[in-house]
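Incident log, structure service

09:12 report received: a user says their structure output differs between two submissions of the same chain.
09:20 pulled the input from the user's history:
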Amino acid sequence: MTGNPTVERKDVVAMVASLGDRPVDEVSERIDSIQLAWLVHQVEQRYGVEVELDDGQFARMSTVDGAVEVLRETIRAVRNA
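09:34 re-ran on a clean worker, output below:
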């Protein structure tokens, strides 16, 4: 992507919903391991970054809000490197 896009909650929910082709209103706040792997892949494709996460970051991504926070931090760090 061009510019400096940021990850929004609606983006994370939409990416998680795309796994299994579900409506966004069926996405729960909790993110399981399969959804997390899918989400990381989708973020790498959409934002053109390689997402490298440590155990603490993975643990924080067990919820939609946590995922938004970690992904924003990660993308910002990659783009500022």
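09:41 both user submissions now match this output. Likely a transient worker issue. Closing.
09:42 reviewer note: The mean pLDDT is 93. The domain at 9-80 is CATH 1.10.1200.10 (Non-ribosomal Peptide Synthetase Peptidyl Carrier Protein; Chain A).
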